[in-house]
Design goal:
This protein has about 1000 residues and is α+β, with helices and mostly antiparallel strands. The protein is built from 10 helices and 68 strands. Strand 37 and strand 38 form a beta hairpin. Helix 3 runs antiparallel to helix 4.
Length: about 1000
C-alpha cells in the first residue's frame, strides 16, 4: 500500500513538474479580477466562505449569512420565531448538503436544510466560533476563540469538548485543519497540535514560540504552516513523514489573518491583515527553486487591504473575503503584458513576421516580441503608427502620419517621406516584385517603386474607388478591398475582381490570407471564403457582432475576434458552417472570465495575429493581450443548476422540490441560478414548464421565469444550462408542483355542471313532452266540445223540429178516414220518420260519449261483435293489471283501431280464434290483438299498407292522433299481432287533474298553445 502511495505521489510530482515546464509561471497580472463591494450592495465584511454541494458560495458576513450565485447575493435568515439572529462568525458546507453556521454573539449553531435556516437544538458554544471543518467520518469540528484552546466535535447529536484535558496546550488557538488522512490539526500561538485518526487525545507536533502560525494543506496532502518565520511544510506528502528540506518562503510574518490556502496548481495564497493578499507561485514544489512572491492590494483593484479568507471553488476560481466585500481571481487564458497598455488611437497595429516574431505598434512605442519572449521596445517616442508591413528581406516598414520608417536587425535603416493623401494609411503590403503599396481609402492606392511614389489605378469603371484593407496571398498577389462591396486581386498590371456580399450595412472588412491560398474576409456580415474564384459566406446567425480579426492555426482551428468573445471553430465546424451558411454555437468561447477584459479593437486593420511560438495576440481597446491555444484554462465541468425559489402569491418557497400550492394560484415566479462562476453572464440557459411550454425557452441573461393564467394541474419546471465553455448540464434542476383546483375548478364542480345540464335537458324534455301532451289533450277537449255542441244542436233543433213535424203529420193522419190509401201512405212515412228520430237520437248519444265512462273492455267487446265473423269464432278479451277508466275520446279511437283490425281478421285472416289483451300499467296502456290466421304478407308489413287500401294507414293515423304508437308483427302461417301502446298520462281519464295543473302552468308561461 505504501508503495502504491509513493508511486502516485511521484506521478503527481512529475506531472506538476511537466506542467510547470510546459507553461510559464503565471503572475498575478495573469488573473482576471472581479470584485463586489458594499458600495455595490455586496455584504461586507466577508469573514468566512465555503461552497455548498449545490454549488452556491456561502458567505458569513458582518450583516448576516448570504449565498451567492455569481450575480446575486441572497440573504438567508433564521426562520421566524427562533430567536434573535446575529451575524455569523463561521460557515461550513457539509458533504451531505447541510450548511452549518455559528452566530457570533449568541454562539448558537444554525443549519440550513430543506430551504430553511433553523436554529439547532444543540447547546451553544462556550465562546465565539472562529472556524469550522468536517472530518472524514462526517463529524463537525468547531474551533472557539479563547485563550485556553477548546475544540468542539459533533458526532451524532452531542457535542464533545477537546481542551487541555485531551492534550491541547493552554494557548490561543488560531486555525483548524482536517488533513487528507483524517487527522485534525490545530495551530496555536506557540505550537501545533495533531489528533491522529481514531484517537481521542491531541499530541503536540511542533513547538513554535510566538510564531502565530496558520495551517494549510497543499495538493500533495502536505500540511504547511505560515508563521512569522515564513511559510513551510510540516509533513511529507499525504500528511506523513518528514517535510522536504529548504528554507521557508519569506511571506508576510506579522499580518497573517485568515487561513492560508493552496490552490489546485500548488500556489499558496495568504490573506493578510493590512497588506492585501499574498501569493507564492508554485509553492507546492518546495525546495526546488526560489519562488515568485507577489502581493495584490487595494492599489491593484482589490476591494480592501484588510483581507479575511481565501477560498478556491470547484472551477478553480480564487475568492478573497475582505473588509469591504468580495473579490474573485480566475486564471486567465488571455494574459496582459504590463508594457502593452498604451494603445494607439485606432487600435494597436499588429504584424506577424516571417521569423515568428510579433510586432506591436502602440501610441508612442513599437515593440517586438520574439517567439517565447516578452515585449521589447524597438522604437520609442514615435507617434501613432498607421500600419506595419514586412518586406521580402525581413525589414519592417512602419508608416506614420508623414513618413515611413524601415527597421531591421535592431536599428532603423532609413526613413523617408510619404505622400500627402489627406487620409491615414489604411493598410500596406509588398508585392512579389518587392514594391511597397499603401491604401489610403479616399486618398487612393499608391506604390513605392524604385524610390518614387506612384498613384495606381485611377477609377475607370464608374464604381467609387475606396481601397482599404490589403494583404498578400499565398501566391504573392495583392488582395485589397477595392471598394465597399468589391475585392481585387492585383498582380500588376492585371486585376481580378470579386464581389463582397456584405448585406445591408457595407463597411470595411478584415482580410486574412490562409496558408492554402484561401482568402478570408470578416466583418459585420459574418465570414466569407474566397477559393479558386468561388466565394462562400457564413452569416452572423447565432454569433452576432462585428468580427474584427481572424487567424487560422497550423492545427486547423479558426479563431474569430467578436466584441465580447474570442471564438474557436475547428476545421469540421467551419466546413459545416460554410455548408449551412450560418454559424452554430462554437465549441469554445473565451470572454471576460477568461481574461478578455476589453473589446477587440474594431478599427485596427487586424485584431488577431499568431506568432511563431503559437501564441495569439489580440489588439483590444485597452491594449494588446496574448493567449496560448495550447494552454487554455478550462474546467470541463458542467455548471450546477439550482431552483433558488418559487414565489406564488404572498408565499416564497426557497429551494423547492415538490410543492402543493394554494388553490386558485394562477401566477408564479421562479428564480433559478446557474452556478458557473468562471463567467456567469456567458452561460447558456434553457427552461421549460412541462404541462405549459411546448418548447425550451431561452431567457438570455435573465434568471427568472414568470407564468400567468396557469390552470389547476400538475407541472414540472425544468432548467438546464451550459458553461461558457459549452459544457451542458442536461440533468439540470427541476421542481414539481401541483395547483389544486378550487371548487369551481374541480371535477366535482364539473360533474355538478354536467349533472345540472343533464337535469335541465331532462326538464326541457319533460316540458316538451308536457307541451305535446297538452296539445293532444287540448285537441281531445276541443273535439269533445265540438261533438257536444253538434249533439246539442241536433237535439235542440233538428230532432225537435222533426219530432214536431211528425206530431203534426200524425194529427193530420188521425183526421183521415181509416182505410184511406193516403192515410196508409202517411202512416208509413210517419213510421219511417220515427226510425230517423231514433237513429238521430243514437247519433246524438254517440256524440255525447264524454258523459259516459271509457269502459275499454266493453267497447272492444262491442267491436268484436260488430266485426261480422262468419262463421262466428271465439274472441277472448283478457285484461292485465288493474282496470282504469280510459279517456272517452281515447277509448273511442282505440275502439275504431280495434274495429278495423277485427274487420280485417274477419275478412282476410281465416283465423280460428282471436285474443284481445288489454294491459293496464302505471306507465302505459297497451292493446294487443293476436290471431292464428294466415298472417299479413311480408311486403305489406314492410311498406305499412296494401296498395289501394288504407285500413292500416288509418289505424296508424288514429294511433298517432291520440299520442300512441302502433306496431304490426306477422309471420306467414302463424297469424298476426297488432299492438297499440299509449303513455298513461295520455290514456287514463284520472290523469286529467294533473294535466290540467300542468296545462295551467304552461299557459301561464306562454309555452302551451291555446286551442
Amino acid at each position: 500500500m505504501r508503495l502504491i502511495k509513493a508511486v502516485l505521489i511521484a506521478t503527481m510530482l512529475l506531472h506538476a513538474s511537466a506542467a510547470s515546464a510546459a507553461e510559464p509561471v503565471r503572475r498575478l497580472a495573469h488573473y482576471t479580477h472581479q470584485r463586489w463591494t458594499e458600495e455595490g450592495e455586496a455584504p461586507a465584511p466577508v469573514l468566512a466562505m465555503d461552497q455548498g454541494r449545490d454549488g452556491y458560495l456561502w458567505l458569513a458576513t458582518g450583516v448576516g449569512l448570504f449565498r451567492f450565485d455569481g450575480i446575486n447575493f441572497e440573504p438567508i435568515d433564521i426562520e421566524p420565531g427562533q430567536g434573535r439572529q446575529d451575524p455569523p462568525s463561521a460557515v461550513l458546507a457539509a458533504r451531505n448538503g447541510d450548511i452549518w453556521t455559528s452566530l457570533g454573539e449568541t454562539h448558537r449553531f444554525a443549519v440550513y436544510r430543506d430551504g430553511a435556516l433553523r436554529a439547532s437544538a444543540l447547546p451553544a458554544a462556550p465562546n465565539r466560533v472562529v472556524a469550522m471543518a468536517e472530518g472524514k467520518d462526517g463529524a463537525i469540528w468547531a474551533l472557539t476563540a479563547r485563550f485556553d484552546a477548546e475544540l468542539l466535535r459533533l458526532r451524532g447529536d452531542r457535542w464533545r469538548a477537546f481542551n487541555a484535558a485531551q492534550g491541547l496546550p493552554r494557548d490561543d488557538a488560531l486555525s483548524l485543519l482536517v488533513a487528507a488522512d483524517g487527522a485534525v490539526w490545530v495551530s496555536l500561538s506557540n505550537s501545533v497540535a495533531r489528533l491522529p485518526p481514531g484517537a481521542e487525545r491531541f499530541e503536540v507536533v511542533r513547538r513554535t514560540p510566538r510564531a502565530n502560525g496558520m495551517l494549510s494543506q497543499d495538493p500533495l496532502g502536505r500540511v504547511w504552516l505560515s508563521a512569522r518565520t515564513g511559510s513551510y511544510p510540516l509533513t511529507g506528502p499525504g500528511g506523513h513523514g518528514p517535510p522536504p528540506a529548504g528554507p521557508p518562503y519569506r511571506t508576510d510574518d506579522a499580518q497573517i489573518r485568515g487561513a492560508p490556502r493552496f490552490d489546485r496548481a500548488g500556489n499558496l495564497w495568504i490573506a493578510t491583515r493590512y497588506g492585501g493578499v499574498q501569493r507564492v507561485a508554485a509553492a507546492g514544489a518546495f525546495g526546488r527553486s526560489s519562488r515568485l512572491i507577489e502581493t495584490l492590494g487595494d492599489r491593484d483593484g482589490l476591494s480592501s487591504d484588510l483581507t479575511n479568507q481565501v477560498f478556491e471553488d470547484r472551477e478553480g476560481n480564487i475568492w478573497i473575503g475582505s473588509e469591504k466585500g468580495l473579490d474573485k481571481l480566475r486564471p486567465a487564458t488571455l494574459r496582459s503584458e504590463p508594457l502593452l497598455n498604451h494603445p494607439a488611437a485606432f487600435g494597436d497595429k499588429l504584424l506577424s513576421a516571417s521569423d515568428g516574431s510579433v510586432y506591436v505598434g502602440e501610441a508612442d512605442t513599437i515593440y517586438r516580441i520574439a517567439p517565447g519572449g516578452a515585449p521589447k521596445p524597438i522604437l520609442r517616442g514615435v507617434r501613432e503608427p498607421q500600419s506595419l508591413c514586412e518586406a521580402p528581406d525581413g525589414a519592417v516598414w512602419i508608416a506614420f502620419a508623414t513618413r515611413v520608417a524601415v527597421w531591421k536587425d535592431g536599428r532603423t535603416l532609413r526613413t523617408f517621406n510619404r505622400p500627402d493623401t489627406d487620409s491615414i494609411i489604411y493598410d500596406c503590403a509588398f508585392d512579389r516584385r518587392g514594391d511597397f503599396w499603401i491604401s489610403a481609402a479616399a486618398g487612393g492606392l499608391l506604390r513605392h517603386h524604385q524610390g518614387r511614389w506612384e498613384a495606381m489605378f485611377a477609377q475607370a469603371d464608374g464604381e467609387r474607388f475606396h481601397p482599404m484593407t490589403m494583404v498578400r496571398d499565398a501566391d504573392g498577389r495583392l488582395v485589397l478591398q477595392w471598394a465597399l462591396r468589391r475585392l481585387a486581386w492585383v498582380d500588376y498590371p492585371t486585376r481580378t475582381f470579386q464581389g463582397l456580399d456584405l448585406g445591408r450595412d457595407a463597411t470595411a472588412v478584415t482580410l486574412y490570407p490562409a496558408a492554402n491560398g484561401d482568402v478570408l474576409a470578416v466583418g459585420d456580415f459574418g465570414l466569407s471564403r474566397f477559393r479558386d474564384g468561388r466565394v462562400d459566406t457564413i452569416r452572423a446567425g447565432a454569433l452576432r457582432g462585428r468580427i474584427s480579426g481572424v487567424v487560422q492555426t497550423p492545427q486547423g482551428d479558426t479563431w474569430l475576434a467578436y466584441p465580447r468573445a474570442l471564438v474557436r471553430l475547428d476545421a469540421q465546424d467551419l466546413e459545416r458552417a460554410f455548408a449551412r451558411h450560418a454559424f452554430s454555437l462554437p465549441d469554445l468561447s473565451l470572454g471576460f472570465g477568461d481574461g478578455l477584459t476589453s473589446r477587440p479593437h474594431s478599427h485596427t486593420q487586424r485584431a488577431l495575429v499568431q506568432g511563431g511560438d503559437g501564441r495569439i495576440w489580440v489588439a483590444t481597446e485597452t491594449g494588446t493581450l496574448w493567449m496560448d491555444p495550447r494552454h487554455i484554462v478550462r474546467t470541463h465541468l458542467p455548471p450546477d443548476v439550482s431552483i433558488r425559489s418559487l414565489a406564488a402569491g404572498d408565499h416564497l418557497y426557497r429551494d423547492p422540490a415538490d410543492l402543493r400550492l394554494k388553490k386558485a394560484t394562477s401566477s408564479l415566479e421562479i428564480d433559478y441560478a446557474v452556478l458557473s462562476f468562471a463567467d456567469p453572464r456567458q452561460v447558456s440557459v434553457r427552461y421549460k414548464l412541462e404541462g405549459f411550454d411546448r418548447d425550451w425557452v431561452d431567457p438570455g441573461a435573465r434568471r427568472q421565469a414568470f407564468y400567468t393564467n396557469l390552470k389547476p394541474g400538475k407541472y414540472r419546471f425544468h432548467v438546464i444550462a451550459a458553461s461558457n465553455e459549452g459544457v451542458w448540464n442536461r440533468t439540470g434542476a427541476a421542481v414539481a408542483f401541483d395547483i389544486p383546483p378550487t371548487f369551481l375548478q374541480s371535477r366535482w364542480f364539473l360533474a355538478l355542471c354536467i349533472g345540472l345540464t343533464l337535469a335541465l335537458l331532462w326538464l326541457f324534455y319533460r316540458l316538451r313532452l308536457a307541451q305535446l301532451e297538452q296539445r293532444i289533450h287540448v285537441g281531445h277537449e276541443a273535439r269533445l266540445s265540438e261533438r257536444e255542441r253538434i249533439a246539442r244542436e241536433l237535439h235542440d233543433t233538428l230532432l225537435q223540429s222533426v219530432q214536431g213535424l211528425v206530431l203534426r203529420f200524425q194529427s193530420v193522419a188521425n183526421k183521415m178516414p181509416p182505410g184511406d190509401q193516403s192515410r196508409d201512405l202517411l202512416e208509413s212515412a210517419l213510421k219511417r220518420a220515427d226510425d230517423v228520430i231514433v237513429d238521430g237520437r243514437n247519433r246524438v248519444r254517440d256524440l255525447r260519449m264524454a258523459e259516459s265512462p271509457g269502459d275499454l273492455p266493453a267497447i272492444l267487446e262491442e267491436r268484436g261483435a260488430a266485426a261480422g265473423f262468419d262463421p262466428p269464432i271465439p274472441i277472448h278479451i283478457i285484461t292485465e293489471g288493474v282496470a282504469r277508466t280510459v279517456h272517452p275520446l281515447v277509448a273511442a279511437e282505440i275502439g275504431r283501431v280495434a274495429g278495423e283490425a277485427l274487420f280485417n281478421i274477419a275478412r282476410h285472416a281465416k283465423a280460428q280464434s282471436v285474443e284481445v289483451s288489454i294491459g293496464f300499467t302505471d306507465h302505459q296502456l297497451s292493446v294487443r290483438i293476436r290471431d292464428d290466421g294466415v298472417g299479413i304478407p311480408q311486403e305489406v308489413v314492410v311498406k305499412g299498407h296494401k296498395p289501394g287500401h288504407f285500413g292500416l294507414v288509418g289505424m296508424r293515423e288514429r294511433a298517432q292522433r291520440i299520442g300512441g304508437a302502433l306496431s304490426i308483427e306477422s309471420r306467414p302461417g302463424a297469424g298476426a299481432e297488432i299492438t297499440l301502446k299509449l303513455p298513461a298520462r295520455l290514456a287514463y281519464a284520472d290523469k286529467a287533474p294533473a294535466r290540467s295543473r300542468l296545462s295551467n302552468f304552461l299557459r301561464r308561461f306562454g309555452r302551451a298553445p291555446v286551442a
